[in-house]
Amino acid sequence: MAVLVFSESDNGKYKKSSFEAISYGRDLADQLSTTCIAVSIGNKGEENLGQYGAHKEINVQGDVYQDFNPNTYAKTLSELSSNNDGQIIVLSQTYTGKSIAPILAIKQDAALVTGIIGMVNTSDGFKVKTTVFSNKAVAHVQVNQANKILSIIPNSYQVNIYESKSEIISHNINVSKKDLNTKILKTEKETGKIPLTEAELVISAGRGLKAAENWNLVEDLSEALGAATACSKPVSDMEWRPHSEHVGQTGITIKPNLYIAAGISGAIQHLAGVSSSKVICVINTDPEAPFFKAADYGIVGDAFDILPRLTKRIREIKG
Length: 319
Ligand SMILES: Cc1cc2nc3c(=O)[nH]c(=O)nc-3n(C[C@H](O)[C@H](O)[C@H](O)COP(=O)(O)OP(=O)(O)OC[C@H]3O[C@@H](n4cnc5c(N)ncnc54)[C@H](O)[C@@H]3O)c2cc1C
What we know:
This protein is of the alpha/beta class. It is built from 8 helices and 16 strands.
């Protein structure tokens, strides 16, 4: 039996969430006295995944992987898992991971556990901790099926560093264009921005900012700090900001080291996506705003006054 880890990359670089998933896979493999195999599909990242715990890395190439398609990726991972006795497959719960995992579970007749936030306990069966009800509760799940797909919340597991390097094996899989049931006609990538899911620092704002044209206050602070920008749902619904910035229950889940929220009330649906941030700083004119209960630091004040002052001070400190 081996632990397979899907390793996602973008533009020749592995995502940080992949390193977390590999470290998770390796710690689990060590517990089970087995091997951790990292799998990359299509163009792989430049880093050697042995540094993060993979005993070996399999890279699968082919024209069919030019654009991401969950069916071809799931089929590839499923075949590799069968060929390598990979009863356990670990993925990060990114957009890509989320779209592959259910298809893979069906193909492998596997138990799928999503929202994982802790290492598996194998002392008495196979038990794992997950978040449920929009991060309001934790469930302890016992997995009884032999084949298991484990989907880990990004930023919930540490990245381990090893001295070793892993062997990279190229592999061909019998996946053809016939396996593509959809065709991507065009992709438009955002450029020059820090991806929200990867960001260590995030500056976010809500309806308290009053209008789209006031977002320069958020952008100035994010530029000064080297942070990504985010927003509440109504803000993206009103098209003040793109939907890719919407965080919360129906948006992206993030876990940065610092989350600064200006003019956001702190509704539970918003908190569901940000409450795991290491440090939360809230700026709100209303001292009774619910967000203050979840905050490590609270500033009762006007975002139109506080944000420019913060930006100015940070620029002064950074010289
Ligand atoms: C099924 C469902 C799913 C949802 N999913 C999400 C989700 O994923 N993400 C999400 O964000 N919401 C989500 N919502 C909406 C959520 O319930 C709230 O309505 C929303 O988060 C409120 O956004 P807001 O805080 O920007 O706006 P408001 O609730 O209007 O709050 C604005 C805040 O700004 C403060 N303020 C006003 N002026 C200033 C100023 N000058 N300076 C500083 N502070 C000021 C006010 O005191 C207030 O607290 C969902 C709702 C439902 C029903």
